[in-house]
Amino acid sequence: MNKIFFISDMFHQDDIVRNNGGAEKCNHTLLFELFHEKYNNFQDYMLVTMTCPKLSPKIINKNINSTFFISNFMTLSEENKNTLIEKNVDYIIIEHDHKYLKSNNPSLYSNYLSGEEGLQNMDFFKNARAVLCQSSFATDILYKNLQLENLINLKGNLWSEGEINLLHDTLKASKDPEDRDVKWGILKTANPNKGIPETIEYCIEQEIPYTFIGHSLFPQFTQQVSRCEGIVFFPRWVETFNRFLVEARALNCKIMTNKRVGCVHDGWMQYKGEAMIEKMRSSKKEIFELYEKLIKKEKIEHYKYTMPRVTIITTFVKAEEFVEEYLNTMTEQTIFDDIDLLIYDAGSTGKEAEIISKYTEKYSNIRHIRDENKISSSEAFNKMIELSDNEYIGMVMIDDRPAPYYAETLRKYLHFSNTDLVYGDCVQTYQSNAKIDESFSTSKNLYEHSLKEFTKENMIKSLPGPMPMFKKSMIERSGGFNSEFKHANDWELWLRCVRDGSEFLRVNSRVGLYYFNPDGVTTSADKFTSKIKEEATLFTEYKDVIGEDNYNKYKQYFSQGLKK
Fold first, then answer.
1. What is the pLDDT of residue 18?
2. Beta-strand (E) ranges in 194-246?
3. What pairs with residue 248 in β-bridges?
4. Which of 194, 363, 440, 443 is deepest in the core (most CB within 10 A)?
5. What pLDDT, on a 0 to 100 scale, did the predictor assign at position 524?
6. Choices 3.20.20.450, 3.90.550.10, 3.40.50.150, 3.30.390.10: CATH for 310-562
7. DSSP 8-state secondary structure symbol assigned to residue 404
């Protein structure tokens, strides 16, 4: 017998009570019109419903071969989540309200993209067999934040047959919208997420006459809605679907709302009256069919989004002690298959080429470019940027060590935010070929330049640091590295880009190890004089970027580079 567990914070006990919320009503329909009807015969299938607090690792371990449907799980313990993951249990998440975010509200963030510090339940979502979303809008937002490959778009919500029939009967008995008693209706609810104060304020400012609607019993609620010509609804947070607006359109209401509603993005508002009711029925049928495939473990089409490839560039003259470990960390990148690695060998005389050849023979996406002349790093980087077929370019020095998720994390933010360059925190080390271990996440020895958020004024330091990722188009607009600078070539380029209007973004994530190389071009003590001279030149040249306050604050420090 196949045992199916349905786990949720709470269950809808009375089908006509509206106060339980859309998630509970949706689950109720799913349970009683599909699961109980077809998958609870105690011969082939048995259904067990359970609230999150009643689930335990002991129950999970006793039912290790069962399928678990996890709906709202605010009260699901971390111990239970970890047990489901570690025991490789077959579980499916029904995603209602953005539990991958600590805030549960994507609308707090630009482009609905949270910073890494705002994410939660990442492993729990990642290890599910499937994560079911109610609209393409909600699916897109979830993908932006977690980059999952197990997402399925349900393309709708569920209403019971009784609710659909009641809406249909109410529609037939209602007046034409122009002849109704109430001009505009506003949902009456204490839920702060629904944005009722903002909706009222809008109506007052626009002199829109309104009446509150919101009876707890669904028959009376539909009667109230059917007396409205239109509905005004401006939610504060992202509504993954929103049943209310669909019900209003089924009753021929006009809709005035914002862009935070899943059913609006997915085209549901083009239907009204009989057409909407038919849409509700057909969508319900398709959703039930999809759940049946999940129960039977049949193949289902998942959400697909193709992320762009990334070019990572590096160069060296002498790097025999670093090159193998560098290549190892690159091949361990979580998105290595989406990376084209360009290595510019500027006239090395050691065994570098021999070491690199072992990797180029194995991996077609690693390219070794050999130049017999010892050209500058600026020239090498410019050549590689020009050679790149990809818009996104990461730059990682041969003696630095990116974290396994470096490219995946920075690509996400470069792709889904309105920015030209992204950078993260780097842990500074004084040990060559250091490994990323447990101390990496707790070390307080962070590379100081990249600790501040991006502003023009904060560019007094080279914020992008040792391993930024940027758009090739930014370089094409502002020009490449200036080979006249040997030490501050990257700072000069980033200052120039910012002067030209480029925007950078700091990602609050530790993306790698920065090796403070005592023999490095910018870090060796014997090169300090030439280094400070270059930096002082830039300090004066880009005064308009860093601002008057910073210029006056650091003028004395940089003056040592201006002395003859």
1. 41
2. 210-213, 228-233
3. none
4. 194
5. 53
6. 3.90.550.10
7. T
What's the gap between Cα 169 and its chain centre?
43
> Which residues have a Cβ under 8 Å from the Cβ of 62 and sit 6 or more positions away?
none
Neighbours of 282 (CB within 10 A): 11
φ and ψ at residue 436, rounded to 5 degrees: -85, 110
Taking 50 as the pLDDT cut, the residues of the chain under it are: 14-19
Who contacts 222 (Cβ-Cβ below 8 Å, separation ≥6)?
166, 167, 170, 247, 251
Which amino acid appears at position 16 of this protein?
I
Helix (H/G/I), strand (E/B), else coil: 212: strand
Whole-angstrom Cα distance, residue 160 to residue 332?
A: 49
User: How many angstroms separate the CA atoms of 517 and 105, rounded?
Assistant: 43
Helical spans, DSSP H, in 44-193: 57-62, 78-86, 122-126, 136-146, 161-173
116 by Cβ neighbours in 10 Å (0-12 / 13-18 / 19+) ranks as middle
pLDDT digits (tens, 9 = 90+) for 532-561: 888 888 999 999 999 999 999 998 888 876
Q: Which has the closest alpha carbon to 483: 384, 375, 393, 558? A: 375
CA 204 to CA 439: how far, in whole Å? 57
DSSP state of 314: E
**Checking DSSP bridges between strand 182-187 and strand 210-213, what pairing results, if any?**
parallel
Q: How far apart are CA 288 and CA 275, in angstroms?
A: 20
Query: What residue type is assigned to position 252 of the chain?
Result: N
Edge to edge, the sheet with strand 45-51 lists 45-51, 2-8, 67-70, 90-94, 130-133, 151-153
Q: Which amino acid is at 138?
A: A
Q: How is residue 294 written in tokens?
A: 């999940």
Domain with CATH 3.90.550.10 in the chain: 310-562
Question: What whole-number distance in Å separates Cα of residue 98 and Cα of residue 499?
Answer: 38
* Start-to-end Cα distance in the chain: 87
Amino acid identity, position 530: S
Nearest to 22 by CA among 243, 309, 263, 329: 243
Cα dihedral 502→508→509→515 (10° resolution): 70
Return the CATH architecture of domain 2-153: 3-Layer(aba) Sandwich (3.40)
- Give every CB contact of residue 261 below 8 A, 6+ residues apart in sequence: 137, 233, 235, 239, 241, 242, 245
- Return all residues near 401 (Cβ < 8 A) that are at least 6 apart: 325, 326, 329, 433, 434, 435, 436, 512, 513, 515
What CATH number belongs to 161-277?
3.40.50
